[in-house]
Every structure is written in C-alpha cells, then in structure tokens.
Write a structure and sequence with these properties.
Largest sheet: 7 strands, mixed
Number of domains: 2
Radius of gyration: 21 Å
Structural class: alpha/beta
Shape: globular
CATH superfamily of the largest domain: Type I PLP-dependent aspartate aminotransferase-like (Major domain)
Number of strands: 13
Number of helices: 11
Strand content: 5-15%
CATH topology of the largest domain: Aspartate Aminotransferase, domain 2
Amino acid sequence: MLTAESRRRSFPMLDEMVYLNTAAEGMPPVEVGEALAQYFRDKQLGMDGRERHFAALEETKSLVAELYGLTAAEVAICSCSSEAFNLAALAMRLREGDEVVINDLDFPAGITPWLQPTCPATVRVWRAREGVLYVEDLAKLLTPKTRLVTVSLVSFYNGHMIHLPSVVETVRHHSPALVAVDVTQALGRIPLNLVGADLIVSSTHKWILASHGGGLVGVPSARAREWTVPAGGWFHLEDAFGANRFEQAVSRPGAAGFAVGMPNFPAIYAIRAALQYLRGVGVEAIDRVARPLTRACLEGVAKLPVELLAPRDDSALAGIFAFRHPAADKIAQHLKANRIHIMSHAGRLRVAVHGYNTEADIETFLRCLTEALNAV
C-alpha cells in the first residue's frame, strides 16, 4: 500500500518501532497533525472562523457517509462511541418487559448502557462458543419483546467478525428489534456493507487514524423516528432559540439528534484529514495488503505454545487476533523492549495489523515473540 518513501513521509514514527496495536490507538499520519494546526489558525479568526469550522463538519459527514453507505444527512458526529450508545438508550425509551440482546465479545460502550439499574429492560447475553458468535444462538434469544440487538462488526476482544447480513436476517425473522452495529474495529481497515443496520457507531482514534473526541453516528432515514434523542442541548434541536423555547424542546429525529452541543471542531478537522488520507489510499487497497499480513502473523503465532482466541476462518478475520499465555505481561515487556507494540491485558495478548504495517514488521514480531516465549 505504501512505498518506503510515502510511509516515512506520512508515518515517520514507524521508522523507530513495530506498531501492532492499532486496535487500541491508531497512528495518525502527519496530515492529521497539519489539520489540527489548520483548526488553530481558523480558530484565531474568532467568530469569522465558524464558517470554516462548519464547512469542515459538513465535509467530514460526507466522508463518513461514503464509508457507511449513507447520505451526509444520515450522519452525525458526537464525542465518542460511549456517548452515542448512551444517547441511543435515551432514544429507545425502554419499558418494563422490553428486552435487549448484548454479547460477551463486545466492548463496554455498547453493553453497559443497558446494564445500568435505571434501564428497565431485560438483558439477554448472546454468548460466543470458542470465540465465535453463532446466529443460531442469537435466534434462541429473540422474542416479540426484543427491542434491540447490539453487536460489534469486529470484536475488540479477539477479532471475530460477524456476518452482518445473517445477523440482520435472523433478527428480522424472529423479532421486531433494531440492530445497532459498532464498527470501531472495522472502519478504515476493511470495506463495509452495513445494509440492514439501524444504528451505526464508531470511535475515531483507532483504524481511521484520527484523533480522540469523535463518535461517528449513522442512522438510515427510514429509522429516524425510532432514534429521536430526548436530550437537552441546542445543536440537535429543531428550534433552540424560538419564541417558545422556555415551553418545549423538540429534538431533530435520526442522526442529527445525536449531535447535542457545539461540535468538537478540533476532532472534526482531524477526522476529515484522516478520512481524506484513507480515501486517497483506498480501504480496499488497505485490506488487500493487510489481510495477508494478518493471516501470516496469525499462522506464525499458531505454531507457538500459546492459546489462540481468534477464529481461524478467513471470513471471520479482519485486522485483529488475540492469544493467551500465563506470562503475557512479561512477553509484552520483552516485545516493548525491542520496540514492538501490542496490547496485553489480563493474560490476553492482542495483535492488530493495519495498512502501514509491512512484511518486515510481521517477521520481526514473530522472531521476538519466539524469543520471549523461550525466555519465560
């Protein structure tokens, strides 16, 4: 995907390390830093800078819409994926007797709003078997009372990728539920087909290589009324400064309702630059290069004395895989001492391969991982 020259130009920090931890933090290209500097210059114009800020917002929404398969009007930007899911919980107005299906491979952002004691719905857990979420297990949990099924397209935990069309078909066949999909661990890494998703959410500091402070929300217009957020604020209201503003607050339906206050313009400038960079490279090109690297890395690790947590099926593999070892922290320390960055948490080691990684990165990682395993 990148020549040695273009990689060094956009990612000079990677000359000094092997970075396989994009699932936690993406490495932004220098173009993102330049965009943040541009935000500061525009901000120095005072109120006159607002026109540029809002133009950046509209451009960014259009870029997100391209990746989501939606229109810009069906996209909003809030502060993070956690905020998006909490606003979604408000929009649903759940009652006693309603049911929500979560799963045990998901990140807390998409799970915990439904587990709060103030949530009246009954929560059912779609449990993975050997690291895989099977739709036949989901079907057993669905009833006419199911209001929501929430799932990540790619699991942060082990990298398992669901087959979204099968999930949507199963949900539609067995219940009237909405389907919420977190694409944080997929957006910018693999091409997306999100047809059938009723709510799409992503953070911005991982695979799209932008900054913190963004939550990318997509709501198809056909589902706008189901996702009307009853939150206070102003930016998301139909008429925040009208004559009756002390008598009522009316939220805009759909995605627009998730943008409850002044947009985080520094993050928006960074997101715009990152998505422009990704568009210039092409997500399909990223996947063509990074997928075989991910496969080679996984196959190399599979030969070592570790417990794989990731599925081996190519169709369920995106950019992440994970494995377990009793000396995980020592292994991670050994790797970091050799300037190799992966994630270690509670005995689990996670590898994430992006388009800026190379065959040399994978070879170095496998060699040093073997050395670490021999040393512990």
